[in-house]
Amino acid sequence: QTAKLPNVTVLATGGTIAGTGATSTTTVGYTAATVGVQQLINAVPELAKIANVKGEQVFQIASESMTNEHWLTLGKRVNALLAQNDVDGIVITHGTDTMEETAYFLDLVVKSRKPVVLVGAMRPSTALSADGPINLYNAVSIAGSQEAVGKGVIIALNDQIHAARDVSKTNTSTPDSFKTTELGLLGYIQGGKPFFYRTSTRKHTADSEFDIAGLTALPQVDIVYGYANMNTVALDAFIAAGAKGIIHAGVGDGSIAARVKPGLVAARKKGAIIVRASRVGQGILARNGEANDDELDFVAADTLSPQKARILLMLALTKTNSTRDIQRMFYTY
Ligand SMILES: NC(=O)C[C@H](N)C(=O)O
């Protein structure tokens, strides 16, 4: 250990960054989650110059198979490590498909201001111009930096730094897939150093009211997707299966089809919390806009994507059933 260097723990969970393909030109149709954490670290010897890096294999999965239970395990491990004086920051290697969801979950449950950086790759480790090694190098640099303290959970790929709340995967396969909404990215990594230009005004990490310490499961919340000719088949099935909350990923500003509305009203009467979100991807979901939320006792998702609204609603339901309080949470986080 070099005294002056920060101590960064790399928690590996799988994904394409740990994937291998048949040939160097295989950039699709490879196998995700095959390379172990020590091999990932060893592939970037330059890491030793910027941090004392320790690796830990938490899972080895493709991120499309991420579950609530994985999140609880990971969140507890992150909190335990960040409580240690000899850990300055954490990097989590993760598949890109659900990285934005894991990042937002952690943003709401990590009890520390120390940096937590999620990183992945769009190309497998065996590909020509694999993006994993440079992304990992940059992520370790951010996790060990003073600049990243207190910024909330970060996603860093392709030389860009994004806040967990507002970033999403926007392209199926290109290395510049991760974009923040119009709200704007946090900064860049250049020459191995992070440069921050903005922060979110929303609460996160050490200022969050959510605590997973005593939890072994999260309440069931499902998403129903809006489209022309939508019906209530999926909604009714989720409610019958015991959903405690429904995210309605409506068209436009969260509009509800005339023939779907009675199903949502019935679900609310049975006790499920209904959150109106939008499938559009940008903008504020107007409370009392396309639906009278006050009258229907629904919640508006603000600017959260449906998949992130699901996470906030699950955590909200661990604390309250009050739609008033849940709406406050959607305007706070
Ligand atoms: N680029 C990736 O990491 C995609 C992969 N399916 C995953 O999410 O694990």
Automatic annotation (TrEMBL):
GO MF term (any one): asparaginase activity
SUPFAM superfamilies hit by this protein: Glutaminase/Asparaginase (SSF53774)
Keywords: Hydrolase, Signal
Enzyme superclass (EC): hydrolase
Superkingdom per UniProt: Bacteria
Catalytic machinery residues: T16, T96
Ranges of residues in domain L-asparaginase N-terminal: 7-200
EC identifiers of the protein: 3.5.1.1
SMART domains in UniProt: Asparaginase (SM00870)
Residues in Asparaginase/glutaminase C-terminal domain copies: 220-330
Keyword Signal: yes
Pfam families, alphabetized: Asparaginase, Asparaginase_C
Gene3D superfamilies membership: 3.40.50.40, L-asparaginase, N-terminal domain (3.40.50.1170)
Family to which this protein belongs: Belongs to the asparaginase 1 family.
Protein name stated in the entry: Type II asparaginase
Source organism: Pseudoduganella chitinolytica
